[in-house]
Amino acid sequence: MKTGIVVGKVWATKRVAELPSGALLEIAVEEEDEMDERVVAFDPLGAGVGERVLITQGSVAKAWFKDGNNVVDALVIGILDEQAAVKRGKKS
């Protein structure tokens, strides 16, 4: 799983029939204070631009579709409210 920020929606006027109805989002993936990777993910939850999301990719994303639909490779599985900061060696 990865976290990222929704930077926009992706619109397709033509799509394969196997792609379910729903939003496709462009997500800037967060990695060690860098955001240079972007993915397009299917969003069944209704995330908006600027929100932090949790995404999964590959076989886990494909398995979410019970009808055997295997065209989605990235899936939004959560909209994050906040991220807890954990400091090693210090107790709060």
Explain what you see.
The chain is mostly beta strands and 92 residues long. It is built from 1 helix and 5 strands. It has a single domain (2-79), classed as EutN/Ccml (OB fold (Dihydrolipoamide Acetyltransferase, E2P), Beta Barrel), CATH 2.40.50.220. The chain has one helix spanning 59-63, and strands spanning 2-10, 23-31, 34-43, 52-57, 74-79. A 5-stranded antiparallel sheet has the order 3-2-1-4-5. Strand 2 and strand 3 form a beta hairpin. The mean pLDDT is 82.
Sum this structure up briefly.
With 92 residues, the chain is mainly beta.
The outline comes out as globular
Q: In the CATH hierarchy, what is the architecture at level 2?
A: Beta Barrel
Task: Please state the structural category.
Answer: mainly beta
Order of helices and strands: EEEEHE
